[in-house]
Amino acid sequence: MNEATRESLRAGLQLGLAALVATALLAGTYFLTRDRIGAAEHRARMQALEVVLPAARYDNDLLADTVQVQAPAWLGDEATTVHRATLAGAPSALVFETVAPDGYGGPIRLLLAIATDGRVLGVRVTTHRETPGLGDDIEAGRSDWITRFQGRALGDPPTAGWAVRKDGGDFDQFAGATVTPRAVVRAVHRALQFTQRHGDAIRAAAPGDTLRFPTAPDAPRAR
After folding, report:
1. Domain span including residue 12
2. 69-87: per-residue pLDDT in tens?
3. Are residues 42 and 141 in the same domain?
4. pTM score > 0.85 for this model?
5. Is residue 222 in some structural domain?
6. For residues 29 and 204, which has the higher predicted lDDT (pLDDT)?
7. What is the per-residue burial (b if ≥16 Cβ within 10 Å, else e) of 166-181?
8. What is the chain's percent helix, strand, coil content, to nearest 5?
9. 9-48 tens-digit pLDDT
């Protein structure tokens, strides 16, 4: 074996050893940190849920007690994750990761908590692509508009009131941006209607189940 071949083999062995050491270090780092990373992710997700559902309202693991719901006529075409809150073993609320599909800039993603008495506990926008300076007033950090759903329920206001003022409803629109708040109002109203109609089925399902609801909301009656 000549010197050039020996040098090539030596270099190959050194590279292989370096790769092995690097792999071992990465694997060791992963095993040492995965629990902490998982715990941090869990805390972050729980903190997001607690913005719409106060911690005093539940004592179960909201991230473990979920079902998937496919109800396109009610909640949009995407599957909706529903977190089921319980307190002392009794149902206390449902938290929807839902969407307003008809925002001006596209879908508006929402977290929406509804108590077992049918009242809204909280609503927050998680992501959107609405026009900066106009439609982004749906964000809690920009205005208090989104907080005005808290405490509302079906019948409060009456059905006709679940619209923006431009459409004869009870909810303000934004100057130069009616489509955005209109989409959110509709999404919240539909979620309340869906909960009234199908909430018992959601609460009775096993954790992890996927439920499908092909029905649609009742058409508004002529006035």
Report:
1. 1-50
2. 999 999 999 899 999 999 9
3. no
4. no
5. no
6. 204
7. eeebbbebbeebbbbb
8. 45, 20, 35
9. 666 666 666 666 667 666 666 566 555 554 555 566 768 7
**Which three-class secondary structure state does DSSP give residue 165?**
helix
Q: Terminal CA-to-CA distance of the chain, rounded, Å?
A: 97
- The span from the CA of 145 to the CA of 151, in Å, is 14
Count of beta carbons in the 10 Å neighbourhood of residue 77? 11
- Report how far residue 218's alpha carbon sits from residue 129's, in angstroms, rounded to the nearest whole number: 30
| Residue whose pair of structure tokens reads 């911690």 in the numeric block | 55
Q: Specify the residue for token string 């370096």.
A: 18
Instruction: Write the single-letter amino acid at 155.
Output: G
pLDDT-wise least confident of 4-18, 87-101, 173-187: 4-18
Whether residue 63 sits in one domain with residue 35: no
